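As a warm-up, study this chain.
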Amino acid sequence: MTQLLLVTSPRQMLLIAAAIDHGALPPAPHGRVVVLADTVPVPETGPELATSVALAALTRRGARVVSWTATIAPLRPESFVPRRDEQPVWERFLRERWLLTDGRVDLVLADPAHGPGRALARVFPHARLVLLADRLDAWAPARRRLRDGLPERIDSLVAPELLPGLRPHSLDEHGTRTVVVPVRRLVDVVAEVVRLDAPGRPSAHHDAALVLVDAPADLGLHDGDSAGAPTGHDPAALADRLAGLVADEVRGAGLGRAVLVVHPRSTPDQVRRTACTLRAAGVEVTFLDDDVPAEVVVVRDAPRLVVGTASTALVTALALGAHDVRAVGTADVLDALTPYHHPARTGLTVTDRLLSPGADPSASEVVLLLEAVMYVMHPDRVPHLRPATIALLRAEQGTDAEGRPAWRRWIRKRRLERLGLLGATGTGADLEHAADLELVSEHEHAAVPGASSGGRTAAGLGRPGPTRPEHVVASPRITDDPPRRPYRLQLALQRLRARGPDRSGA
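Now compare it with the structure written out below.
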């Protein structure tokens, strides 16, 4: 069996190398092949994956490198998917071009439903799949269900241990096995890349702040699937506010330099706003080299501050032992994000609860909150997380500065009402009623994950959190109304009724 490792970011290179060391990937008797795919809209203008220092982590583990981007040029990897009737031709072509054997080919990839992942999953229709949960927005079920027999081909889901007890639930509905890669494996791989990149080089950014410029999709803005910001929220004004909050944090930490880590999908206007705001605050701005991922800088240079909004690299930096990690503007973005089940909500919830100013949660509290949010986002996909939502409502019965329930920052009241977890008034009595709801077991095989008490590099994350039921698996019912007929069927029935009985004698 030959294993194709589809890579679209340096973070995936680090995670795959750590997964190989941990034994999370199946053995590959005929070797591993790294397939590079640049998923930025215009690959020619973005950083080249082939020049990333993180690629050495895979080549040192015996993998050779090919490029999907170069193979299909001038077509774009982000949008190109071969037609179904072209599959045999493409498979023969790739086996010859990439020197693959005639035997079995398996795929390791992050997303089999979009972009290059969808293309290769179609070209190799018999390949078994191992999925990577390298980003927090991939930890909750996707907006659209996997189709075309993809769930049956998935062997496992590999994810890094960003927090003790935190695990993805994106494929729970299919019963897919989840393999968690310990954070120590990731630390070892990053340290190895640092040694290979610049052995003995002195720290260049120790006295600077590392500023992570998020992609608009991570903030729920301009991603093509959602309006991002509803009426009353101007995306430009929101971007200006986020840039101002970043500048305040940098100056508040007493730092005069900031190193910007620009996401490949960040817009020029977004980068310009952040840089200009920092310079206006008297902060010297430099840009990180495209071929160096933020995780490597955190270990190599030990910056005094890492700041951003929703980037998964914030939580990874904390796991790697960064001195000070902060998330700013998360409450504003969460309030603006629409629809509620937008995938960006997963990462924003974690960074807001874990890294926003004044936050001091235990790891189990973060895990409980994220499971509750995932359930409210997709109650039909992860019904076994309903007990976590009830436990959160029991634990978060205080009020915030605006007099709202404490959970209102992350969970919308109307959603709880539709799920039968909260009465119309949202009072404490309703919470007591919610706690007594009968939970009907429907999927005995789907165990409610337990909160871990493992150690963390950040102080306080090992504290015990609120108790939650461990023995109940629930099946929610959002509404008691009868199912509605599809619109076209309703229209056809109305027309038939308007015509009256058929008197043609037929």
